Structure to design on (222 residues):
């Protein structure tokens, strides 16, 4: 199934946070809601808990600008309990544009997948996280699918901060609300996101996040 562009999903966000305003903490779970869209109905409610990690990479090679978004999480459960399903997830978005040629898109790809327990691991104090898996992505420029190989490590660079995120989002094909309470740490992200030919993340990303949700819910309206 061809995915919808993630840029359409996280277009308009209102975030309220106690303590530091971790916008990315809410963004990770916006992507959860989008991932669930293909199997959900209006009024469906999901409980979210456990650890997650997010990172944003930006690189320049002369005129070529490359952006990579990666998010991963441990568990999403559907209510009521008799309909429960739990799984880890990964979301990948890769964009390349030619800034010297009217920002011509060269690559605009996205992919979502579930994770095995060993694919994504997080330290108990949110001091580290690792992600090692393969995701099938769809490129809107070439209208083709390709595999993305992810091998990343997050290393915390800040103390944990407790935050509450209240977010409401509306975009084509998706309306949802969510509330999350948990802890987050800023983290440097290193490793590779590649198609076996090109490593899209050659440089470390200093402003990733490792998070843990104690309580959270996402409600789908569509």
């Amino acid at each position: 199934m061809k995915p919808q562009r993630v840029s359409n999903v996280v277009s308009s966000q209102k975030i309220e946070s106690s303590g530091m305003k971790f916008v990315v903490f809410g963004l990770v779970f916006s992507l959860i809601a989008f991932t669930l869209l293909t199997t959900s109905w209006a009024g469906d409610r999901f409980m979210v808990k456990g650890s997650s990690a997010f990172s944003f990479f930006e690189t320049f090679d002369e005129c070529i600008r490359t952006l990579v978004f990666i998010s991963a999480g441990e568990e999403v459960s559907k209510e009521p309990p008799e309909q429960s399903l739990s799984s880890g997830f990964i979301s990948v978005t890769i964009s390349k544009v030619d800034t010297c040629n009217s920002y011509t898109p060269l690559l605009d790809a996205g992919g979502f997948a579930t994770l095995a327990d060993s694919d994504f691991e997080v330290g108990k104090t949110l001091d580290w996280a690792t992600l090692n898996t393969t995701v099938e992505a769809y490129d809107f420029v070439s209208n083709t699918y390709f595999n993305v190989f992810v091998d990343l490590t997050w290393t915390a660079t800040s103390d944990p901060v407790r935050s509450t995120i209240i977010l409401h989002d509306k975009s084509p094909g998706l309306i949802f609300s969510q509330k999350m309470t948990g802890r987050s740490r800023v983290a440097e992200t290193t490793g590779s996101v590649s198609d076996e030919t090109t490593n899209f993340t050659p440089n470390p990303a200093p402003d990733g996040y490792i998070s843990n949700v104690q309580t959270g819910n996402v409600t789908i309206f569509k």
About this structure: Residues 6-221 form one domain. The two ends are 19 Å apart (CA to CA). Residues 3 and 38 are 9 Å apart (CA to CA).
